[in-house]
Design a protein that fits this description.
Elements: E1 3-8, H1 15-24, E2 29-33, H2 39-55, E3 60-64, H3 73-84, E4 88-91, H4 93-96, H5 106-115, E5 119-122, H6 138-147, E6 153-156, H7 164-170, E7 174-177, H8 181-186, H9 192-199, E8 206-207, H10 218-229, H11 234-248
Parallel strand pairs: 1-2, 2-3, 3-4, 4-5, 5-6, 6-7, 7-8
Length: 254
């Protein structure tokens, strides 16, 4: 079993290529993350993700997105989860231009706690010129987790050589995904896997992700190869590849 916890579905490319990429890499299920930098874009992206999940319910799950500082963001997110079946929330502070510790996003965080669903936050570098890199600082997630210890949060693009492992290990409800960053580090440090789990103080906090989309299906294999190279027990790899994600998403796959 493999669950890709972090993928996207922009309205370009052929989605059949995405499914083909999943099949070629033996990925059973994927979380599709909506993304938009305006209220209209966020709504359109969430609706498109929902349509794909409805079409392929045995392969896909959806994370909606909202512009979290908007007054009705929490109510809209509740609609996405309760009425449309979304499994969580994707927020991209650098591209959506907000700080994770902005008090105005509090109602959205509290709604995710109430609904008992995870929030996937972009952390780390971002190359879009209009994006604010400082809003992707993982230290902001540390502060947010102190403020909201019940919020289930996942730091996307977890950096094994940064603060990310210590932040995830000290907060019971904070996780990291492997998306791109682990594969990049593995290219120069092939034996990073065992150290990564040591820094995380176990194998319960790391989840497989790729950032793949219909035009970048090569990311499936690129990120999987990094997991294959990890010199850790097979049981730990199973947790990374699907068991922790299944628990967080409340999937009964045993």
């Amino acid at each position: 079993m493999i669950i890709d916890f972090h993928t996207h579905a922009p309205e370009r490319g052929d989605f059949n290529d995405f499914l083909k990429g999943m099949d070629e890499n033996k990925i059973d299920m994927a979380v599709l993350d909506a993304l938009g930098v305006t209220v209209a874009e966020a709504a359109r992206s969430s609706e498109y993700v929902h349509s794909l999940v409805q079409k392929y319910p045995d392969r896909l799950m959806g994370f909606a997105t909202v512009m979290p500082r908007e007054p009705d963001a929490a109510k809209l997110f509740e609609h996405y989860v309760k009425d449309l079946g979304f499994k969580g929330l994707k927020l991209h502070p650098p591209m959506q231009n907000f700080s994770p510790i902005d008090p105005l996003i509090g109602p959205v965080i509290e709604k995710a706690i109430e609904l008992d669903v995870p929030i996937l936050f972009h952390t780390g570098p971002i190359y879009a010129q209009f994006a604010t890199v400082a809003f992707g600082d993982p230290l902001l997630i540390d502060q947010l987790a102190i403020r909201y210890p019940q919020a289930k949060m996942v730091m996307a693009h977890g950096n094994p050589l940064g603060y990310d492992p210590s932040i995830a290990s000290k907060h019971p409800n904070v996780y990291v995904d492997t998306t791109l960053r682990l594969a990049e580090v593995t290219r120069v440090m092939p034996n990073i896997g065992e150290l990564y789990l040591d820094l995380l103080r176990g194998d319960e906090k790391l989840m497989f992700g790729t950032d793949a989309n219909p035009t970048r299906t090569w990311r499936f294999k690129y990120n999987l190869d990094a997991i294959d190279q990890m010199q850790v027990p097979q049981e730990s790899k199973e947790k990374i590849l699907w068991k922790t994600a299944a628990r967080l998403l409340k999937l009964n796959l045993n």
